[in-house]
Amino acid sequence: MSAKPTEQEEEYFARMEYEKRKLVEHAKNMKLAKAERERLKKLHLMRCPKCGMKLINIDYRGIEVDKCSECQGIWLDAGEFEAGYNLDRNIIEKLFAVFKK
To answer: What is the per-residue pLDDT across 70-101, written as a single tens digit (0 to 9) for each?
Structure first.
């Protein structure tokens, strides 16, 4: 009978897996020529990761939220999720109400 991993163990292994994959991706990115990195950045800048359409940037109480013009997906850059998490629950509900169809 196998023991079920604790929440802390699951967190630890998820973090370790992320760090491992991050190192692999970093090594791949370092091999790319600078011109290729610039080409890829220009190609994907402000495009939805899900459908590829244009993202519209909206500033809401200091948090820059990117919303897809087509699939209505909402995307946050690094640190923006944490900033939203620290807001009052009522403010978060208002934020999502802004983006409802």
So the answer is: 998 888 887 877 777 676 666 667 666 766 65
Domains held by the chain: number: 1
User: pLDDT tens for residues 8-41?
Assistant: 888 899 899 999 999 999 888 888 777 787 887 8
The whole-model pTM stands at 0.50
C-alpha to C-alpha distances, 18 to 5, 15, 22, 80, 82, nearest whole angstrom: 18, 5, 6, 19, 18
In a domain, residue 10? The reply is no
Nearest to 57 by CA among 76, 84, 38: 76
Q: Residue 9 domain-assigned?
A: no
Is residue 45 a contact partner of residue 38, using CB atoms and an 8 Å limit?
A: no
CATH number, position 72: 3.10.20
